[in-house]
Amino acid sequence: MKYAPVVATSLTLAVLACTGCGVTPFTSGDASSGPGPSPVNNTVAVASSANQTSASSRTQRDQSGSNSVGTSGVGGLSGPAGSVQAAPPPPPPPPPMYKLGSSGQKVEQLQIELAETGYLPLTYTPPTGGEPTQLGGRWTWTYPAIPRGLAQLWNPTTFTVLTESAVMTFEQVHGLAVDGIAGPKVLGALMHDLSAHRKSPYGFTFVMVSTHLPEQLELWHNGAVVVKTPVNTGIPASPTVTGTYPVYLQYRSQTMSGVDPSGHPYRDPGVPYVSYFYGGEAVHGFVRSAYGYPQSLGCVELPISAAQQVWPYMHLGTLVQISSASDA
To answer: Is the pTM of this model over 0.85?
Structure first.
């Protein structure tokens, strides 16, 4: 089925209204910065010009012991008489922020740290004698058999959907807003994990769905395909999107309702093992008499027993790749 999820607590029972794919999946919790320092307000006393001060006034000042200046001050300046307002300091630089499309050495540094903590399926070897996260080293895949679709997502100096996946998983593990953006909170928590030698609790999962008949799903985890099952994808009037997307929302069970392309309403209670990856499209269990060809409204439907097998391997950030028949 294809649905737009109502905001609800993850992994809880919820009801969705079918509104197409116009869902904004993330809310950034790491992209704001606090206020900068207050400007310094320094004042500098300025004496009146000597040729404007009479001898008698100098004598009077000496007798009274006063060091005050006249009220005329300096022309063109505002503020207290005889004072100058200091220019405020420049604003602080924006905090570091890396997201889909970012590139450069800072992104490679981020990916070295994500690999070192087990959130990327790659191994980084630093230069001889260098620190573990020092640039200029060598990248290799952690596992010998890497799916072609996964290998094509990697770029050491570019923040790709593979990097976004790793950041989202990291955010879920650390209770941060899951938006796929590496800002100060993510970077700070990542440095803490590096110093504590803390690793990802999940390993790495990559879900591959082929719409080539018979349609099937393969779940690759830590170097091997551990689940393989026939599935149903979207009918021609409501096809499943192609491409690679991270899971952004999950429910253990939910009621799905809406209107199909023919205008007929539907309501399916208790749909199990739901993982949304694009708008209202999700991987989930669903009872059908047969599997392997288009029957859904955009979702990837699995037999209930297969969905139960897939569920423990999937989490926020898990990549789902949908390939069309022409890609086979």
So the answer is: no
